[in-house]
Specification:
Distance between the termini: 88 Å
Strand order of the largest sheet: 1-2
Shape: rod-shaped
Order of helices and strands: HHEEHHHHH
Strand content: under 5%
Mean pLDDT: 73
Radius of gyration: 41 Å
């Protein structure tokens, strides 16, 4: 009977000449991979929320810019020419021998023509709103000045009609002339200014409404993602 071989090895024991078994990676590596894969949607949510908030801020800034300024475009040239024509009308005869400037400062020629109150009010409004405020609105591009110019020119248009009517209803006992070319030209120019300022203001209002709609849409997008964290590294989208 042969003796048992002393070189026999127990199961699991490495035999001579064999490489040691490969070490298994620790379980923590697998859990870290799962954590990194779980962080990817979280990072996407955060970046989407940040982008939504930036878009909301940009839309709000654009709305404030539109609300404060006007863009008359080609109408700026029309308004500038109309202002020059209005100032030129003051050099023409308002009625009789009295031109617009003389009526405005109540000169002797204006007193001899029995100038009524509507003519003086019309010329005052035409200078203040038709000339001064219109030029200020064109230079500064401020929306509030454009609104003031529009309201003043509209009021001047009404008093221009009353001024023409007052010159056509002068008492026969007074040796006063009728309507002069300066009055008619000034009245027509103020009406043109009123029309163009109305178009400028209305165009700006439509642009502001569009900007407000865009801001509300982007604000809703930002609200959908929310901006609060739930714990360290946590982010929960805000549902509507």
């Amino acid at each position: 009977m042969s003796e048992p071989d002393d070189t026999a090895h127990t199961p699991g024991e490495a035999q001579p000449g064999e490489d040691p078994p490969a070490q298994r990676p620790p379980a923590a590596v697998g859990s870290g991979a799962q954590a990194s894969s779980a962080d990817s949607p979280l990072a996407d949510d955060r970046s989407a929320a940040d982008a939504a908030r930036r878009a909301e801020h940009d839309a709000a800034a654009a709305e404030r810019t539109i609300a404060a300024a006007i863009d008359p475009g080609a109408r700026a040239m029309v308004v500038a020419v109309a202002v020059l024509v209005l100032l030129f009308s003051f050099t023409l005869a308002h009625t009789g021998t009295a031109n617009g400037w003389e009526v405005l400062v109540s000169a002797d020629d204006a007193g001899a023509e029995a100038i009524a109150l509507p003519s003086r009010v019309f010329l005052t409004l035409a200078v203040v709103f038709g000339a001064v405020m219109s030029m200020l609105a064109l230079i500064t591009r401020r929306w509030v000045l454009a609104w003031i110019a529009l309201a003043g020119c509209a009021l001047a248009s009404v008093f221009g009609m009353l001024a023409v009517w007052s010159r056509q209803t002068v008492s026969p006992n007074l040796a006063a002339a009728g309507v002069g070319p300066g009055l008619l030209l000034g009245w027509a120019t103020v009406i043109v200014l009123t029309f163009h300022w109305l178009k400028v203001v209305w165009g700006r209002t439509v642009a502001q409404m569009d900007a407000e709609h865009e801001r509300r849409r982007r604000a809703a997008d930002a609200e959908q993602y929310g901006d609060g964290n739930t714990g360290p590294g946590g982010f929960t989208p805000r549902l509507k």
